[in-house]
Amino acid sequence: MRLHRLEVAAFGPYRKREVVDFDALGSDGLFLLHGDTGAGKTTLLDAVAFALFGVVPGARGEVKRLRCDFAEPDEPTEVVLELTVHGQRMRLVRSPEYERPKRRGEGTTTQQAKASLTWLDGAPAGHPPEGLVRIDEVSRTVQGLLGMTHQQFFQVVLLPQGDFAKFLRADTDEREKLLERLFGTKRFADVEAWFRDLRVHKRRELESRRQGIREWVARFAQVAGQDIPEDNLAEWVGEVRLHTEKAVEEAQSAERQARSALDSAEKVLQARRTAAERVQRLRAAHHRLSTLAEQEPERLRWKEELAAARRAATVLRVAAQAERCAGQLEDARTVEQQRVRKLAALGYADTDADAVELRRQAGKLREEAGALAGLVAEAEQQSRDRRMIAQLAERADQARSTVLVLTDKLDGIPQLAAELREQLDAATTAAGRLEGLRTKKAELTAAVQDATGLPAAVRAVAEAEERVRAAVDAHQEAREHQLKLRELRLDGMAAELAAGLVDGGACPVCGSAEHPAPARPASGSVDREQEAEAEAAVRRAEEARSAAEAAKHRAETALTALRERLRGRSGEELEAELHQVTTQLAEVEGQAQRRTRLAAELRSAEAEKSSLTDDLVAAKEAVAAAETQRLALQEQVEKRERRLDEARGEHADVRTRRAHLVGVVQALDALTEARLARATAEEQVAEREEELRSCLAQAEFETVDEMRAAARPDDVIARLEKRLTDAANEEAAARAVLAEPELADVSPDDEVDVGSAVEDARAARAAAETAVAQLEAATTRATELERLAGRLTEETEAIRPLEEEFEELDALTDVVNGRGQNARHMSLRSYVLAARLEEVAVAATARLQAMSQGRYSFVHSDRAGARGTRGGLGLDVLDDYSGTVRPAKTLSGGESFLASLSLALGLADVVAAETGGALLDTLFVDEGFGTLDAETLDVVMNILDELRAGGRVVGLVSHVEELRQRIPTRLRVRKARTGSTLEVQM
């Protein structure tokens, strides 16, 4: 992964759009994000993380507040990142969810989060060429291309030193959580869980089978009626089965004896019951005949009463009809009198007329009422029209009031519109001046800062000149010392050549093989090493002189540029001018901000004028329409009123007169029907009375009262008939019993002893039933015990392989989960993490030894923790000076930074290798350099230089001034509110 370009707008502390060109910054492989605390260094790393994954690292990601508080309302918050992953260049654009002011009205509205991915070199296979715009699809695609989650990215690309300092001092659980996030050991945790779940399942299955065996044993003991022994279960089962077989044989013998005794007792009982039953039947027949003879007079009286009731029944129906007709005649006369009084109450005098006359009068009045039906409808319409006239008058008055109100409103609108238009023109003019005033304010603000920095720039030039003078003097002194040493060496060159002579060897000067008097070195002579050291000192002094002269040139150039920008103006003059421009800008901004509101108010006034004009025309038309309709309707009402007055006569209105006529007609019809019904009833009464006299004579009754005295209800008649029939049947049955042949030799005085036979038979039956029950119980128990013993044997044999399998699974599960025979108490997941941590320790040790100049190394330990806690994730430091292993907590602040940085780089190498190796072409190291001395900082910088090998780009995030001096400034970014500056250097 290589970053090319980053843009942030209204993001974090950056109010405006800022651009960071990583291609330019990374051309040398190393760049620095420098600035004061709070200048926004880490925000740029947050922007990179947000563009890739939609989240930011650490606690900042929990707040979810990414929009700049000082951004313009219309300025969108977004991050744009161009990068290359696996040779595929793309552009990511993301915007977070934030609240912004509403464009219309007051309050705020939620701006939804957005994301897009655009392929700059053509889409890879399997991806749409037009790119992606859904947030979830963008995140899923980026994570797939990078091959790591956002937690891994934050750890291996944005190397957070504080987190690794915590990692050094963390306990086993905390260290395990971080390593799990980075190396994705969920599959091993799943294996552990699979073993645990399988053991639980198998334990439940085994316990279920054991419970089944216990239930079979309990059922066997329950059927056997014995307690379960603690041991020798099989022997106990055999003894119970043998005892049960003997009990069955004994029960079979007892059952046969009891059944034989029962058969003999039942035969004796049956013979005595037959004899007793014959004597009883004979006695009952004699007793019934005697009782019937005593009841003979009463049966004769029942026969006479039954005959009289049957004769009276033929007359009762006719008498009832005669009484009913008499009652109907009385009711008809009463109804006729009531209807006569009702007709007289309606004012009709001729109530004694016959039915024919009454029908004629009713027809005449009915025709008159029919003629009034049409006028009733007109009377109803007359009432509705009068109400409508009142409504039209009220409607016309309301419309006139509306005309007056609308006229008053329209009078003031033209003046208001003119005032709003004048104010809008002024606001528009102010808006046009804003950009110029803002530019001028920015220039004056920069000039004030330049004026503030002028004395420091002058001092910097003076100090640079002093350093140049000192460097020139030092260079000249080094040069003079070198020349002096060279002269001394030349003077002693003979002795130097003589030191190289060998007996028998040729002299390099004269060529002689003999050396009778070689020169000896004089005191203060100079050798080659001393001269070389002096030459090196001259070169160093020359480099220092060149650096001082370059620094002086830069200081003079900066001072000249500063004075050119000030153009002779003092700080007080610039501040006064800045105050004046600031005040003017605030006034103009206030006027410009009213432009939108004034434009809206002007449009509202013009729209209100148009609406009111339309409403006024409509109100005037409504007045005219209501008046026209009211006058036409008034004329119709007056004409109809004359017709209705003639038709109502002496009544209040036509409806009342018609209702009166209809009431008289109904009363006449009712009286006619009542008189006809009364005449019909009189005729029926006469006919029924004649029929009743004839029926009484035929039934041999003198009067109706005599007939009613002889009459009986139907249930009484039925009861009498049943009594007579039952008595005859009983007499015939008794005589038939006496005539039976089998009773010929039986006397009513005979006695038969049945009770003793019954007791003997009952005792024999009880004994037989007890024997049968005992046999059935013994047989059932023996059968059930045999079945239960068989099932118990089957279950016992079947559970043995399950118990062996579970013992093996239980032990293996304990080992996988860090218990049981696992001596180090390391679970499978911890074992894998320990292996990963060991790889990290090896990779980090190479960095740490270089940074600590060979003193420190990481030591990984897989021993168990204190008091039997889990092990495998121990990480200590080997101090080569003392040869002892030290806890990481004993390191100093600077040493902790070196260890944390080494650990972070080592972990980045291991994770990068696991996720794709060469994928990570860009790394960021965040803070921690302030704890290092100058020499250690040189070592760390050399290590970071090595990271650039192979085209890798390393970004440092720090406020340390020495790093700023090492890496020249390339880009400055100013923070929104405080004005603090972030410098991006390379």
UniProtKB/TrEMBL annotation:
Residues 515-554 are annotated as: Disordered. InterPro entries: P-loop_NTPase (IPR027417), Rad50/SbcC_AAA (IPR038729). Residues 526-554 have a biased composition (Basic and acidic residues). It comes from the Bacteria. The keyword Hydrolase applies. One of its GO terms (biological process) is double-strand break repair. GO terms for molecular function: ATP hydrolysis activity; exonuclease activity. Residues 5-186 form the Rad50/SbcC-type AAA domain. Residues 461-491 form a coiled coil. The keyword Coiled coil applies. Keywords: Coiled coil, Exonuclease, Hydrolase, Nuclease. It holds the Pfam family AAA_23. Heterodimer of SbcC and SbcD. Belongs to the SMC family. SbcC subfamily. This is Nuclease SbcCD subunit C.
